[in-house]
Amino acid sequence: MNNKAQSLILSTAIHYLVPLLLLFSVFLLMRGHNEPGGGFTGGLVAAVAFELYAISEGTPKVRQLLRIKPLELIAIGLAIAVGSGMIGLFVGDPFMTSLWSGELPLLGKIGTPVIFDVGVYLVVIGVVLTVMLALAEE
Amino acid sequence: MRKWLIALLPLALTFYFASFIPAIAGGETSTATIEWIPSLDIQLSFYIDGLSLLMALIISGIGTLIIIYGGEYLAKDERLPHFYILTLLFMSAMLGVVLARNLIALFIFWELTSITSFLLIGFKHEYEKARKAALQALLVTGSGGLALLAGLVLLGLVGGSFDIPTLFQEAKSIQKDSLYLPILVLVLAGAFTKSAQMPFHFWLPGAMEAPTPVSAYLHSATMVKAGVYLLARFTPILGGTPEWHTLVIGFGSATMLLAAYIALQQTDLKRILAFSTVSALGTLVFLLGVGTPLAIKGAVIFLVSHSLYKGGLFLVAGSIDHETGTRDVNLLGNLRQSMPFTFVGAILATGSMAGIPPLVGFIAKEVVYEATLEESAALLLTGVAVLTNMLTVAAAVLLVIRPFINKAGELPKSPHETPLSMWLGPILLGILGLAAGVFAPAFGANFVEAAINGITQKPKTLHLALWHGWNTMLMLSMITVAGGVIIYIVLENLLPLMHRLRFNDVLSPATAYQKMLDGLLKVADAQTRLLQHGYLRRYVLVIVISTASLVGYTLVTLTDLASIQFEASTSVRVYEGLLFFLIMVAIGVGIRAKSRIAAVATLGVVGNGVALIFLFYGAPDLAMTQFAVETLTVLLFVLAVYRLPLIKEYSGKRVRIRDGLVAASFGIIMTALILMVISSALPSNLTNFFAEYSLPKGKGRNIVNVILVDFRGFDTLAEITVLAVAALGVYALLKWPTNDEKHANPTATQELDQL
Amino acid sequence: MTDFLLVAPIITPLITAILCFFAGERIWLQRSISLIGQALILLSGVLILIQVERDGIQVTQLGNWPAPFGITLVADLFSAIMVTLAGLMGLSVIIFSMAHIDSQRERFGYYPLINVLLMGVCGAFLTGDMFNLYVWFEVLLISSFVLLALGGEQRQLSGALKYVTLNIIASMLFLTAAGILYGLAGTLNMADLSQRLPDIEPSGLTTVVAMLFLVAFGIKAGLFPLFFWLPDSYHIPPVPITTIFSALLTKVGVYALVRSFTLLFVQENEYTHTLLLIIAALTMITGVLGAVAQMEFRRLLSFHIISQIGYLLMGLAIYTPLALAGTVFFMIHVILTKSALFLVSGIVYKLHGTYDLKKLGGFYRSHVWLSILFLLAAFSLAGLPPLSGFWAKFLLVQAGLEDKEYGIVAVALFVSVLTLFSMTKIWSEVFWKPATITTTQPLTRSEWVASLVPLVSVVVLITAIGLGAEPMFRLSQDAADQLFDRSAYITAVLGDNP
Amino acid sequence: MEVLLAILIGSLYAAGLYMVMRRSLVKMIIGLAFLSYAVNLTIFTVGQITRGKPPLIPEGQALPTEPFADPLPQALVLTAIVIGFGLQAFAIVLIKRTYQSVGSDDIDQLEKAASHD
Q: Which subunits sit against D, judged by 3+ Cβ pairs under 8 A?
């Protein structure tokens, strides 16, 4: 798996595919609250993108691209998720009570559940990449 | 020096208790209560009447002497402080037993005596014998203790209180209750194990592994008397019934006679004393079983006399052992010259034991005979008593003549008289025995009367005298002594016969105990090997069988399988039927798969088939997730497992059929259950709420997602935590530096390389 | 305040776990963070306990969604007691770990894992939602999987594999049961379920589902005949891990059994409780026989976990207020006592490098105080007075006799003789017997402190509970009364007009 | 369709358990996967399936169009799938390491490996 993929075509295809997939994953995440999608599916798609990149370019490249360790990604995601839940707690509501902003340009309404979903998204990416990269490097 | 200081503590206690004598002898009782667990009716309450006072005096008085004696005896032992602490602890526990007014408090102190005696018996714990003896004593008395606990709780339930004096009032209703017999048996089990009644007596001779001061204290004067005390205490509650008479007299008389017989065959001083103690305990139990005022009088006097002389004799035995280095009566001799004070102590003690006037033992024996003579089965009971006493007299004679008068053999050490601290005890106890006999009226008025009244709970005055004139009892006494002497004289000739009778083997519960213990270990071993065999698949099998039978049995017995409705709400469409068929085929292939390709393909087909089902039934989010996870799983499988060897079937055909049947029946049960559930389900309580609030308050149009991040976001938080930990686990497993691969089967490694 | 207090035991360990992760190689920082985290759990447990004792059952509706639509956290006395114990055990084990966990494990996420384990445990104790309970079970399971497998030795892996497989099967049964329960009753909130389950026709169907739960929780709790995974795996990881497993994991299973069979599955009491009674008896006996057969310190203790679970179940099976109080009391007792024993085994191992009873010896001479601590704990486990175990057993025995369940009482008493036997076996071999090996590896001063602080505190507690049983008994009685009073629970969760 | 699904679920349980009881590690993994499908389908099926619309609220409406599928079982199954994936990933890697360490895919060898210790 560390070997670069033999096929140049595949490599090139993946080269273009990866950013597209990553974009798509963010799209899935953002629209998940209203249409099928969300943090899980989005995260999985993003992870698949990195995985493809790993297949074509080898795992070191992926780690380089990511800049931070997948395990750290998980921790950050968890922190975001639990933090979004605690916001409610500090304004005197029960844990995970949602708070919403007004309508924002481009992004629509931003609320703590959306932030929570971002946390989920990051955790999923981190988890899949941790597992897959570690296995691939075996 | 220290021993004298420490002895001040029990001495002070003795004086403290002695200060109660006038009041108690005047018929009063005294109570002190500390609330402990009021919600359970358990108080730490203490109660002094004649019986408990007498016991308390024996415990603290003899305890004082034991501390002094032990301090000298164990002077060279570095664990002497342990001896002091444990003995004092034991003493407190024992005082607690006799003073407790609350059944549960009594039980707690009772168990504490078992624990402390366990530690004391095992004092010389570097010897395996001591450890075994300690364990044996603990197990026997501990088991009895648990029976006692059940008995006491039942007694409390039936009698409506844990307070002993209150229970005295309830005696009639308790004895009429259907639970009376179980209560009696359980309480007796506790008392008999503690007081070493046959067949539970064997732990007591074993316990002679303890240092002699401990034996003197625990195994003659105090702990073993706890069972006797219990019987005495409960006489007004449980006594007087035919069941009581039968059981208590039966065990008591058998014990007193047989133990006296066995005692004579021993050659170890302490073992002789131990068996003779068992016999004395039997006598006490026997008397309490008879339960007439005379018998109880006999019991009280004998209790005092036995505590005094047996305590003294154990101390004498300890001194002899200490000075000569042996306890073998065949070896010992001639000690009257080298150990004169000890000899005097021995004479006084054995005299009382043999019932020679004017020692208190004489009075005891007279009263015992008087009591047996007035029974309906007088001939039998008196006969047993006389025979027992003859054997006891013979033992007493032996205890004086062999070590002190006979010629000595080769002794390991040359004996000298012990220091004051060691001969003080025997002499003092002997003098007390003498005083109790000589001043019988005062002894009777101050101690015995109140104690008897404490047992019977029917106050009466008592006149005790040493001399009753020429009567039947005196005749019997004389016959007893004469018989005992004769037995001693012919003992040498009798012994071979006694051994040949092999009576002891038949009557040897010690062997039974050992066999039970071995059997227990064997059963435990076998059971554990049977259940805990270590084979994963058989564990799974047992779990599946258990689940299937629990669920299946309940399904069949508690529900009506006929109520399953097969015409379901949704009909089958062609593509659905096809999908169903496809998945079923894939499952079939999976079961028989021999190659990894087939395995991966199976997983893929089934997983994606399931995703399609989700899609057909309005769950696009689920379908997407399932597709993605499926892809990842296959990838994982390829990455991790693909290098495993070909799939082999290791099990034989019969095993496969067995497993197949079990698994199939589980599957059938699940199918039935699901159909059943579908036909009797209640409508969901939640769906409409979610539909209604998803947009206005959850701000989302994908209800599933709103549930995941908002309505039930907490689930999701936990779920991503699971994912995170799983990832950490995978990471740790794979990155853990290990040199295990080197140890692995080399052929397997080669196999790996080839792949 | 309640909103804050009830989530605190769940999110505090999650936050500390994340912080530990970021602390990375700075092990001292990880330790301190974990210590603070566990102390906070303990503190919030105590505060919840006080508040519940004062004001009755406490509830927080997460996300501010009214029950039964969102997830509700509920603290009654039983939950509060369990959370407090969890915090106490977490704290003790973290302290103990400082002397008894190798640095390799510390670097590979030991502290985050313990924290997450506690998170799952507290979540399970506090949740009032069936599916949420499942999720917390998974949290504590996956962290226990990793804790068990960390180290990667051969025997560790094979023990872990059994543990993982059997527990995954248990989880699947649990999930199946929870799903079916939703299908049947249309709700997941336990209070709501308690209300709706009696409406289901035929009523036996609920009991069928109850059987699935019985097996699922039974595997986790280590009931007969589902306990195999336990003795095959608990003796494998280092002692602090075994200790926390023994103190909390099986107890979560028992907690779930108690909760579900007092709140939900009360339709066929006769049937289910007879069954529970039989299982309780068999669990006690098989467990203790397993212990009797062992010659390995920790394996012996592991088997005792099982037989003690039988006692816990006994109270539930008898099902009177006193009996349930017995179960609660026994729970407090056994968590403390068992931990003390495992901690002793850890210290002994650290000193002599083996768990083999045959090879050990001489500790009474060399370490008198340690011996006394062991003896107190051992006698407490065997139910000897005046230690906590005596009262625990006493309550169960009295409850059983009151309810005329003589059979189970006889078994319970018999098993306690065998418990005593196996405890004295350890005593005799490890402490009394003369030492056979001399290679004692002395502990440093700070290692002694880290070893003894938790051990002494736990033993002091055992003794204190024994000597002053009244407050603990009253607490257990109140907790049991709450368990019996379903309507109070339902009202607390759903409000007055559900 | 419910009947077919019930049969399918039963078969998945049976097949899964049968395979978990095999001695081959690979079969065990497949067995666990089968079981996980069985469980997810169970939740889905008993949660009153409808061949309805997904539980989405169309733009401009306040409620989803009837009949719509019950969203809660879907959320539960989704959670279960993801948790199942986590467990499975760990289990697979554990099996891999066990295999490497024991050197055989015969689960019975594990016991021997453990008892050698």
A: A, B, C
